[in-house]
Specification:
Arc Repressor Mutant, subunit A, 2 domains
Length: 151
């Protein structure tokens, strides 16, 4: 099962890479926009932890998105060393395009999977995620508080 999960995730990432490049972006840029839509005001450090990359990598990606007028850095009100990231209006049409692409990827993924099977898969994956988060947090192995127990 682990190899299968890994292979499906890899294929989804490859398809997302292909689709992002058709829009002149990278999958990493798309992911940043999605996270900032979900959680406006994340810091670059928090975003780096979520994406499992170095903060300098996020800084460079944000530089590119900022140059395109999609993201802006705002100083944290409590700590001027921290930059909070916020979407700008120019990101909205891109997010709309991304949602169309995400919906199409999901359609392709599930076209031969019965709806009851899809629901069972979602329930099973949510339970796996919740169990892993709970066990890792209990053992102190996982400290990322930005990840929620539900999908």
């Amino acid at each position: 099962m682990l190899f299968l999960l890994h292979d499906v995730a890899r294929l989804i990432r490859q398809e997302a890479d292909r689709r992002a490049s058709m829009h002149g972006m990278t999958r990493a840029q798309w992911v940043i926009l999605i996270w900032l839509q979900r959680q406006p005001g994340l810091s670059q450090k928090e975003l780096a932890e979520i994406l499992e990359v170095e903060p300098i990598t996020v800084a460079r990606l944000i530089d590119r998105l900022e140059a395109r007028g999609m993201v802006e850095r705002r100083p944290d009100v409590k700590d001027r060393r921290i930059w909070r990231l916020h979407l700008l209006e120019a990101a909205e049409p891109v997010l709309d395009e991304m949602e169309t692409e995400r919906a199409d990827i999901l359609r392709v993924l599930t076209e031969d999977v019965a709806e009851t099977t899809q629901h069972a898969m979602i329930e099973g994956l949510q339970r796996m995620k919740s169990t892993l988060l709970r066990k890792c947090r209990h053992k102190g192995l996982f400290k990322d508080t930005t990840v929620k127990d539900v999908a």
